[in-house]
Design a protein that fits this description.
By secondary structure, this protein is an alpha+beta fold. The protein contains 6 helices and 8 strands.
């Protein structure tokens, strides 16, 4: 697959088949983070991999899904794995560097997951202390992002935005299958100059 096609297919998924993701696949996905660029090459991000059904169920309830629409996934649509991205508490670099590193890392992991046939999403955890407690981690870490990983049941369709409306929407096809429409600005609106 060409890299641009892989990028177009690496979308944010919100509904999954409720199957456990093998730990070896989660490790392969984190390889994308392992080889990511990092600010000053400090590599301050850490990763906690989860495929335990009980912990996955609790994480599913603790994250905010699909903030732009009223639809929310049911437990039957929960992902079968998670990667939690953490850093030191207090952070050892300014947060702008940490979040830049997160963006690179998350995108690389999303590309690896997509190449393996999985769908992912990522969101900032609201209940950071609850996540640390659930994972039996001390407050020497700060959870930055939670990445659910699973076999997607939603088909992502990129569309042209109309009137600068970026709000995504879903079409329910029944039996936990969906079409999820994601408006994108035209490329010529993103490029503000050429010389």
């Amino acid at each position: 697959m060409e890299i641009l096609d892989l990028i177009k297919n690496a979308r944010s998924h919100r509904s999954f088949k409720n199957v456990t993701i093998p730990m070896e696949d989660l490790v392969k996905i984190v390889e994308g983070a392992h080889f990511s660029s990092a600010g000053a090459n400090k590599q301050f991000l850490r990763y906690f991999l989860v495929n335990d059904n009980e912990i996955c169920s609790k994480l599913f309830k603790d994250v905010v899904w699909a903030s732009q629409i009223t639809w929310k996934p049911s437990e039957e649509e929960a992902p079968g794995g998670y990667i939690i991205i953490l850093t030191d508490n207090p952070p050892k670099l300014p947060l702008n560097f940490i979040y830049a590193d997160c963006g690179i890392s998350l995108q690389n992991m999303k590309l690896i997951a997509t190449s393996l046939g999985y769908g992912v999403n990522f969101m900032e955890p609201v209940k950071k202390d609850d996540i640390l407690s659930l994972l039996n981690l001390s407050n020497e870490y700060i959870p930055l992002f939670v990445m659910p990983i699973g076999v997607p049941t939603d088909e992502i369709i990129l569309t042209d935005s109309e009137n600068d409306n970026m709000k995504y929407f879903r079409e329910d096809l029944g039996e936990h299958n969906y079409k999820h429409y994601v408006p994108k600005l035209p490329l010529d609106e993103l490029i503000i100059g050429k010389k």
